[in-house]
Amino acid sequence: MFSLTRYTTRCPEPINGQILQMVVDNLTDISSVALPPSNLLYNIYQYAIGFEVHLYLEALNGEKGIAVELVVATDAEDPEQVIGFLLCLPVKDDPEACGIPFMAVQAGSRRHGVGRAMMQDVLARYPHAELACSVEKVPAFEAMGFQVRGARDTQVLMNTRSYGTDGLMGVLDVAAIYRSLEVQQIHAYLLQRHGKRAMVDAERQRDRHLDQLARKVQAFVTGERG
């Protein structure tokens, strides 16, 4: 069993730490890039996606000028143990709408209704929700009431309604993360350790991987609508 807690202000640091560890552990699963750990650039995306989630958690206090809510699932027998989280971005000027940028459940707690319960908690307040996911996850979100609306780069765009909201949703500038000193330092370390040729190969592998994902999504969406 598990319990759900909703945060609209910053949550305790132990909770934050477990959420960020979950992001790092499930990077391939929750990132639109979905790089495998074998790619040398994996560490860069681990840092960048983790830092992005960190910034959203910081934004819970409202200081960054965007609306953020967080649903956390904890083990009923061990309330200090986080087993799932869902980040929600309420839409300005549309009180029924939200976007869901990140959601994850610990591997050992999957298929026990944790993800569905967190989603139901959000949809009870924001019935018009939108998210993007991999092709493989479409059936799971369809079972939660979402429908395919199209493609968004390497992911399938899904919504609980057949149209998007006209309201504005505040999001973070993630491009700045990839230009940060920290990412440059990680890249420099990887370059020094593996060499230029290996890093160039990793970048080519990443680009081919992203192209394959985008084609897969387009084929799925076209077939879905055909």
Automatic annotation (TrEMBL):
Organism expressing this protein natively: Pseudomonas rhodesiae
PROSITE patterns: GNAT
InterPro entries associated with the record: Acyl_CoA_acyltransferase (IPR016181), GNAT_dom (IPR000182)
Domain N-acetyltransferase: start-end pairs: 28-174
Molecular function in Gene Ontology: acyltransferase activity, transferring groups other than amino-acyl groups
SUPFAM superfamilies: Acyl-CoA N-acyltransferases (Nat)
One family name in Pfam for this protein: Acetyltransf_1
Protein name: Acetyltransferase (GNAT) family protein
